[in-house]
Amino acid sequence: MGEKRNYFVTEEPLPTEELIQSVIRPEAGAVTTFIGTVRELTEGKRTLSLTYEAYKPMAEKKLAQLGAELEAKYEGTKVAMAHRIGKLEISETAVVIAVSSPHRDASFKASREAIERIKEFVPIWKKEHWEDGEMWIGDQLENVSYKDQKKPGEEESP
Amino acid sequence: MIKVLFFAGMKEQAGTAEYELQQKEIAVAEIRAKVRAEFPGVTGTDRAMVAINEEFTNEDDTARTGDVVAFIPPVSGG
């Protein structure tokens, strides 16, 4: 208890300011914050709410691994990431990524890469609720196959 | 005994979040076949990634008694 966690999944509203504070330190001269929010319209279809589900222990572990990888790749960065699960209304915050670095370039790059990679392999799923139905996203499209590919989360070869 | 976890759409289709395999050890490819046979209504058993003890696997990796296997359908967080 009381220990600051930099990588977590929670049913509670995300503590954005705490995540930012957790990466601020004297050697940092820049902090970027990416906040993902629930969008109402996707390709003209109106979303009423979203439900996120996670394989929580694995998702937290993968967020921590991703953070460590980004900190190694972008020198001097410090990363914190959290994802909310459960039912979220329009405009509520689903994900927060905070990155600090001595100079701004590393923070921008690391936070961009962080969100792209969360969407690739961190075990979190969303269910869209519409006026006329609901569906788990990512799970109905037949165009995503992981078979015969590298394991998700592994870096592209240089 | 090996615990198998389902999430999201697969969990809804299976009607359960988990079930147990009695094998002492079993390869990932064989786990997929078992799940297909046990839950014919579940789609995406081939497409999902399989994790053992919270790490992604290859088809020839093996789960052993006490391990936790999870089917990870294409993710949609963020």
Automatic annotation (TrEMBL), chain A:
The keyword Transferase applies. It comes from the Bacteria. Keywords: Molybdenum cofactor biosynthesis, Transferase. Pathway: Cofactor biosynthesis; molybdopterin biosynthesis. The keyword Transferase applies. CDD domains: MoaE (cd00756). Its EC number is 2.8.1.12. It holds the Pfam family MoaE. It is an enzyme of class 2 (transferase). Signal peptide: none annotated. One of its GO terms (biological process) is Mo-molybdopterin cofactor biosynthetic process. It catalyses: 2 [molybdopterin-synthase sulfur-carrier protein]-C-terminal-Gly-aminoethanethioate + cyclic pyranopterin phosphate + H2O = molybdopterin + 2 [molybdopterin-synthase sulfur-carrier protein]-C-terminal Gly-Gly + 2 H(+). GO terms for molecular function: molybdopterin synthase activity. Belongs to the MoaE family. PANTHER family: MOLYBDOPTERIN SYNTHASE RELATED. Heterotetramer of 2 MoaD subunits and 2 MoaE subunits. Also stable as homodimer. The enzyme changes between these two forms during catalysis. Converts molybdopterin precursor Z into molybdopterin. This requires the incorporation of two sulfur atoms into precursor Z to generate a dithiolene group. The sulfur is provided by MoaD. This is Molybdopterin synthase catalytic subunit. It comes from Alkalicoccus daliensis. The lineage of its organism: Bacteria, Bacillati, Bacillota, Bacilli, Bacillales.
Automatic annotation (TrEMBL), chain B:
SUPFAM superfamilies: MoaD/ThiS. PANTHER family: MOLYBDOPTERIN SYNTHASE SULFUR CARRIER SUBUNIT. One of its GO terms (biological process) is Mo-molybdopterin cofactor biosynthetic process. Transmembrane segments: none annotated. The lineage of its organism: Bacteria, Bacillati, Bacillota, Bacilli, Bacillales. Keywords: Nucleotide-binding. One of its GO terms (cellular component) is molybdopterin adenylyltransferase complex. InterPro entries: Beta-grasp_dom_sf (IPR012675), MOCS2A (IPR044672), Mopterin_synth/thiamin_S_b (IPR016155), ThiS/MoaD-like (IPR003749). Pfam families: ThiS. This is Molybdopterin synthase sulfur carrier subunit. The keyword Nucleotide-binding applies. The keyword Transcription does not apply. Gene3D superfamilies: 3.10.20.30. One of its GO terms (molecular function) is nucleotide binding. Belongs to the MoaD family.
